[in-house]
Amino acid sequence: TQLLEQSPQFLSIQEGENLTVYCNSSSVFSSLQWYRQEPGEGPVLLVTVVTGGEVKKLKRLTFQFGDARKDSSLHITAAQPGDTGLYLCAGETSYDKVIFGPGTSLSVIP
Amino acid sequence: KAGVTQTPRYLIKTRGQQVTLSCSPISGHRSVSWYQQTPGQGLQFLFEYFSETQRNKGNFPGRFSGRQFSNSRSEMNVSTLELGDSALYLCASSYWTKQPSGELFFGEGSRLTVL
């Protein structure tokens, strides 16, 4: 069974601070996605990474896919209250099934 | 274009009853996936349908079932409800079904409470 783990589970930081959240697995994924979910809404895609070692930047967010395609990280620079939400990583298994990690709940305090 | 629409948004049932949830995907999307989200387990994959065929299934008991119609709309059914079925049920549609997966577009979910 392919599983994704995320850390930390909860994170509360002050506005302007930097943070990194992690997504790990013992399995290889063909691609990995990051989503953000806000209360009362469904998750919204932030990025998809496909190639081992790939780095993608989306404004203040930097995403990295591990060389072995088993892990990923999301780094946020100068966090803002609008970044508050549940960050979910999702991996595509060899059976074309997309599974999700448990999420990191981020709270950015003004 | 219109997003993914799920109905009903909220519902309350009692143990032993059954429930049917509906999902209308984005126009042109032929893949529909269902997920169960709970605070303790996160998002758990239920099943995926593509062109009226179930392509993948998660590790849920047979009480959970689904189907997809020719217009890509999908329904999921849970029979003999248990307290542990209380959750947010999310539907997601996508255009591609080949790897790498395209973006999953989620609806706002149907929040089920079982008393």
- Give the largest interface pair and sizes: A-B, 24 and 26 residues
Oligomer: heterodimer
Query: Helix tally of chain B?
Result: 0
Q: Over all CA atoms, what is the radius of gyration of chain A?
A: 13 Å
- Major sheet description of chain B: 7 strands, mixed
Q: Give the helix level of chain B as a range of percent.
A: under 10%
Put simply, the count of helices of chain A is 0
The average pLDDT value of chain A, as a whole number, equals 93
Number of extended strands of chain B = 11
- Strand content of chain B is over 45%
Helix/strand order of chain A: EEEEEEEEEEE
Shape of chain B: globular
Largest sheet of chain A: 6 strands, mixed
N- to C-terminal separation of chain A? 41 Å
What would a concise description of this structure say?
The complex is a heterodimer of chains A (110) and B (115). Chain A has no helices and eleven strands. Chain A is mainly beta and 110 residues long.
Features:
heterodimer, A: 110 residues, mainly beta, five-stranded antiparallel β-sheet, 0% helix, B: 115 residues, seven-stranded mixed β-sheet
Give an overview in words.
Chain A is built from no helices and eleven strands. Chain A has 110 residues and is mainly β. In chain A, strands 2, 4, 5, 9, 10 and 11 form a six-stranded mixed beta sheet that branches. In chain A, a hairpin with a 2-residue loop joins strand 6 and strand 7 (61-65). Chain B has 115 residues and is an all-beta fold. Helices cover 0% and strands 52% of the residues of chain B. Chain B contains no helices and eleven strands. In chain B, strands 2, 4, 5, 6, 9, 10 and 11 form a seven-stranded mixed beta sheet that branches. Chain B has a four-stranded antiparallel beta sheet with strand order 1-3-8-7, with no helix packed on it. The termini of chain B are far apart. The A-B interface holds A 30-31, 33, 35, 40-45, 48, 50, 88, 90, 92, 95-103 and B 4, 33, 35, 41-45, 48, 55-56, 58, 90, 92, 97-101, 103-109.
